[in-house]
Queue: 2 jobs
Job 1
Amino acid sequence: MKKVKLNNVVLSDGSPKIAVPIVATEQAAIIEQAKTVLAAQPDVIEWRIDFLAGVLDPEKLKTAALDLRQTLGETPLLTTFRTAKEGGNLAVDDETYFQIVRLVVENELTTAIDVELFHPKEGVMRIIKLAHDHGIKVIMSSHDFKQTPTDCEIYYRLHKMADLGADVAKIAVMPQNPADVLTLLSATHQANEKLGLPLITMAMGDLGKVTRIAGAVFGSALTFGTVGTASAPGQLSIADLRQALANLRI
Ligand SMILES: O=C1C[C@@](O)(C(=O)O)C[C@@H](O)[C@@H]1O
């Protein structure tokens, strides 16, 4: 299993890591939220830039990013632009999506960058190379907010991310019944046995909460928890997550 380091945080070292999202819309509020989140000592902080008002203005994005990085110090930053069709806040075309992600990468504004799998392959490959040239880790992602794909399809997507050169492969699905939760966990287990890179997987909503707590048993290296506002349905507070992980001794 490849170990992936985000600053001093090692993914897949046997203990699950916790990431907390920042979803504020203005720079001042983002910094405030960052300070509150930092006090809870998560392993990773995710900045959901699709929530930033004026994110399409490069100067606005750069200024906020520099301010946030300074606030975070050594805490690893995962920067994510989640498009509307994957459950995010803003609908943009592929070109705009790549422009935003490129800006973050070229200016080295982050420790890791989220790259959605479902964009044109050429562009995805170019971004991955660019990120690696700048020493930035790539967490590739796929989100299904309506349903849970088959275990073959989940495995296929994770495999494709690995093939494209992702450092970490991530998938979030929406379960409709308990069998869907098992499907996500089973595909995670298979991928963890075979793919050799850290995985982040979860089923969303109330039904999926068990995967946010026990995902590590099946091979998920990181779980998303909240300090304040959630960025996806079913996220637990960081305090509840810590307690649950401690009870499971994972
Ligand atoms: O990819 C993910 C996972 C997530 O969707 C979740 O379900 O916890 C939350 C998002 O903020 C993050 O980018």
Job 2
Amino acid sequence: MIRAYLRQTNVYFTMQQINHLWNIKLSKAPERQPLMNGLLDKKYCDAFRWLEGIHVRIISPKTILKFIDEELIHDNEAILKQNGQTLNSMSSGERKQAFLKYTLNQKPEALILDHLLDNLDTMARKRIADLLETQSHLSGIINIYSRDDDRLPFLTEEFTYESQELKKESLVEPVKVQTKTEIQYPLPNPLHEVSIFDNPLVSFNQVSVSYLDKCILKNISWVINKGQFWHLYGPNGSGKTTLLTMITGDNPKAYGQDIKLFGKQKGSGETIWGIKQKVGYFTTNMTFQFKRRQTVRDMIISGFFDSVGLYHIPSDQQIKLAHEWLDFIGLAHLADHPFIDLSMCHQRMIMIARAMVKHPPLLILDEASVDLDDESASLMTGLINRIAQEGETTIIYVSHRMEPGLNPTHSFELVVGDGGSEGVSSSLH
Ligand SMILES: Nc1ncnc2c1ncn2[C@@H]1O[C@H](COP(=O)(O)OP(=O)(O)OP(=O)(O)O)[C@@H](O)[C@H]1O
């Protein structure tokens, strides 16, 4: 890359016509892995040859998690919020913004963004787009995205990546979202009779949570009854994940609060294991925890044991039920494939089946459509709607964007105010 410097004014700029400012739309989610693996391993194909020998930084879910791992191992606190908070304890949206600012300070000559705008609220998207527009005068930028909303309009060249080839586009056609009807099998029956709990399944009464003396959740009251399908939403950092971890049992702040789970007061002797048996949970970061080459079948079976990987000998019935779930999601042909080699969409469907295999009374899906393309998101929407319609399971679906075609019965919005977020419940039908 050729650069020009205005030494007198102490400002430097890169000649616009020489900078590579690319939007790359993935035509399908399965294209993402080979593209990102090539870029992470610096195995550049001809189109990316210009990245050789220059200072390239990649912002992707993987590079952020790698940074957090190193932060924890080496006690390295290179990225801190003003209040001293580490990257690990920030919300997912806050992390992306903090990691971007840190990366820009490294003065990269090229910046590769892997679905950076996905999963961000409107204000955060605007802040990040402004930062990147300024950066576009200083370095090359490659913005890899799957949803049309995530295109950066100030980047000058448009590409699609399809069949491992980069194609230049004059105008990126919006992808027509099709409602897929590929789920033909009935919802599998549970292995054992599912315990019936009285209403409400979950209730929060005037629950408040603070971190570092800052109130995050303020007087939250929320009643979740059997068979309901909730959409939980609110801006980045409003406390959605904090609220969910009070249900899943991972948050010590839940103790001493008026929370009832499955008919019992929180803190009245229930074990985390007991709660985990009743809650199917999926969050995008979980996918990256599975690093061993386990088969798709074993991944689904591991849902019975809530383990990261399969370390138990499953019963014949458990294996049979895992196959029924594979039939249900239309991926029976992948049973013996290593999970980590699959596309993001297939991994996501399998993780949902894994969360459901024990037929939990409550299924929590945290940002399940993140990183998917329109078609994959539509397939996943169909799967969730089927589980909601045919099963006994109550669903909490967390997202910033409302997926077209998703049919929640209720919504719970976290509205950020000066003294913390307050909750607003609505019935949608
Ligand atoms: N252990 C912690 N220490 C300090 N602050 C924390 C901790 N955990 C969460 N927070 C703060 O609490 C707020 C709520 O975080 P949470 O992850 O619940 O938000 P969220 O609504 O899920 O956000 P996002 O949409 O970005 O994922 C954030 O400002 C976060 O930085």
